[in-house]
Design a protein that fits this description.
This protein is about 15% helix and about 50% strand. The protein is mostly beta strands and about 140 residues long.
Length: about 140
């Protein structure tokens, strides 16, 4: 009788899990860096300070244990005054999986980069618990 009850709970649990709509991934984001010049797909050294005349700012990371068709979202923010989202870019791993080197970049505005604090949030899919943030400053 106890086995039958345990088996019933197991079946109910499996049915509940199957009916839930959630996203699970083993992917993780590591080694986030900011730089003004990329080497291959990654920043060599991370720089916490960027010049207002820098032509392009890069943010790179390593995506570890990613299944195929994984979305990675980069959200660039200006933090002075009221937080302003500058741009949001989504990359997809396509048929690639496992470990990947990724980067996103922004080109300098015509008048140069506004001085102040910036951040880039990097997120796997829509999983807000996966957000990793890198901060830098333009001065």
């Amino acid at each position: 009788m106890k086995k039958l009850i345990r088996f019933s709970f197991l079946l109910i649990g499996m049915a509940l899990l199957h009916s839930c709509d959630f996203e699970f991934s083993t992917a993780s984001i590591q080694d986030i860096k900011v730089c003004s010049q990329i080497e291959g797909q990654l920043c060599g050294e991370s720089s916490a300070t960027i010049s207002p005349n820098t032509a392009e700012i890069f943010v790179s990371c390593e995506l570890i244990f990613a299944p195929p068709e994984t979305d990675i979202r980069f959200v660039w923010k200006y933090l002075e005054g009221e937080e302003l989202i500058i741009d949001a870019i989504t990359l997809n791993t396509g048929n690639e999986g496992s470990n990947l080197e990724l980067h996103s970049s922004l080109n300098r505005p015509n008048n140069g980069w506004p001085a102040g604090k910036y951040a880039v949030d990097i997120m796997i899919g829509t999983d807000e618990s996966s957000i990793k943030t890198v901060n830098f400053e333009v001065r």
